[in-house]
Amino acid sequence: MDPATDPTAFRPHRVVVLALDGLLPFELGIPHRIFGRPKDALGRPLYEVVTCAVRAPGPVRTDADFAITVAHGPEALAGADTVIVPASYERGPVFEEGRLTEELAAALAHIRPGARLASICTGVYVLAAAGYLDGRPATTHWSDAERFQRMFPRIDVDADVLFIDDGDVLTSAGVAAGIDLCLHMVRRDHGAAVANDIARRTVVPPHRDGGQAQFIQRPVPDPQVATTTAARAWALGRLHEPIQLRDMAEREAMSVRTFTRRFREEVGVSPGQWLTGQRVERARHLLESTDLSVDQVARDAGFGTAQSMRQHLQSSLGVTPTAYRRTFRATTADA
Predict the structure, then answer these.
(1) What distance in Å separates the CA atoms of residue 324 and residue 25, rounded to the nearest whole number?
(2) Which of 100, 106, 19, 95 has its CA nearest to residue 63?
(3) pLDDT in tens, the chain (335 residues)
(4) Is residue 27 left, alpha or beta, with left meaning phi > 0 and alpha meaning psi from -120 to 50?
(5) Helix, strand or coil for residue 169?
(6) Whole-angstrom Cα distance, residue 52 to residue 97?
(7) pTM
(8) How far is residue 109 from each of residues 16, 20, 43, 119, measured CA to CA in Å?
(9) Which of 265, 318, 299 is CA-nearest to residue 309?
C-alpha cells in the first residue's frame, strides 16, 4: 500500500521551528539537538525537525554578528505536529504592543487545528499575541514576566517555574529551560527511557521538573558553606525506604529548618517535592523497563502501596501506572 495513503505507515512526528528576526542561535538549535536524536528499533527518526521563516526562504537575522539561511517558508507550518517558537530579541509590534504583524499572522494561519504549540523564553509573546494563551497558564523568563503579565492580563503568568505543560500549549523560561521543555515533550511522547538517553547524549540533567524554580539562589554551592548534596545522594540510594525530612537533615548535620531553607536555595523546590519527583521518575523507569507488578514497583519506588503510586502518577502524568506501562513499554523496548 502507498505510504501516503496507508494510515499504519510509519511517519515521524513533525516539529517545525519558527525562526524570527533577531533570534538567538542557541535557542534555535535546541529543538534540533533534542528532537533530532531519538530513533525507533529500525533506526528511523521518531521526529522530523524543520526550520521555517515567516517569509520566503532566505536569510534571517540573529542577535549575533551573523545571519542564518532558512530553507523553508511559512507554508511548512501547515504540516506541523508541533510548532516551537524560540526567543527573539528584535523588538517589534509583537513585543512592544502585543499584536501580530500581518506577515506573522499570515504565517501562523498555516498552523492546523490540533497542532501542539510551544515557546522558549520570549517566544511566548508570539503565542500570546495570537490569542493561543488567553485564559491559560504560561511562563517566560523571570526578568520579563512582569512586563508580559501587564501586556497580556488574560494570561495566568507564573514566573517561578521552568516550564508549563497545559496540554496542547507549552511555555518555558529562558535557554536551559528550553532544553528541559523539549526533553519533557519527548518524555511525554515516548517515555522516560528515550528522553533520558537523549539527555545522556546531550550531557544535561535527564529531568528537571517544570515546577522547579527558575531562579535558584545557590546554583553552584559555596565550598565554604554546607550543602545538601550528600543528603540527596543518600536519599537517591534509599528511595524504596521511608525517608523523613529529619533523616536528610541529619546527614548534613543541620536542623530541619536550616536544611529545608538550604535545600530550596540549591535545588529550587522543597525536599518533599524533590523526593516525590525522584520517586515518580523511579516508578516510570521500572514500569517501562521491567515486568514487576504494579505493587512491587510501588514498593521499590518508595510509594508503599499501589494506590499511593497511582495517585502520584495521576497527579504528575495524568495517567495510571498500568496505562503508562502500556503506552511506553514498546517504545522503551525499541530504544
Answers:
(1) 36
(2) 19
(3) 444 445 567 899 999 999 999 999 999 999 999 999 899 888 999 999 999 999 999 999 999 999 999 999 999 999 999 999 999 888 789 999 999 999 999 999 999 999 999 999 999 999 999 999 999 999 999 899 999 999 999 999 998 888 999 999 999 998 889 999 999 999 999 988 888 888 888 877 666 666 555 555 545 555 555 689 899 999 999 999 999 999 999 999 999 999 999 998 888 889 999 999 999 989 988 998 899 999 999 999 999 999 999 999 988 888 899 988 888 775 544 44
(4) alpha
(5) strand
(6) 24
(7) 0.76
(8) 14, 16, 34, 17
(9) 299
HEC per residue, 205-233: CCCCCCCCCCCCCCCCCCCCCCCCHHHHH
Cell (9 digits) for 284: 516510570
In Å, how far are 35, 121, 131, 252, 289 from 179, measured between CA atoms? 10, 11, 25, 31, 24
β-strand pairing of 47-53 with 13-19? parallel
CA neighbor of 71 nearest in space, from 93, 56, 81? 56
What's the rounded Cα separation, in Å, for the pair 113 and 96?
28
Residue 228 Cα distances to 87, 249, 261, angstroms:
34, 8, 10
**Residues 127-156: pLDDT tens digits?**
999 999 999 999 999 899 999 999 999 999
Contacts of 89 (CB under 8 A, 6+ apart): 22, 23, 24, 63, 122
Q: What is the spatial distance between Cα 110 and Cα 20, in angstroms, rounded to a whole number?
A: 16
- Measured in degrees and rounded to the nearest 5, phi and psi for residue 260 equal -60, -45
45 vs 250: CA distance, rounded Å: 47
- What is the identity of the amino acid at 71? A
Could you give phi then psi for residue 42, rounded to 5 degrees? -90, 5
Span 166-208, pLDDT tens digits: 999 999 998 889 999 999 999 999 988 888 888 888 877 666 6
The answer to whether 17 touches 33, Cβ cutoff 8 Å, is: no
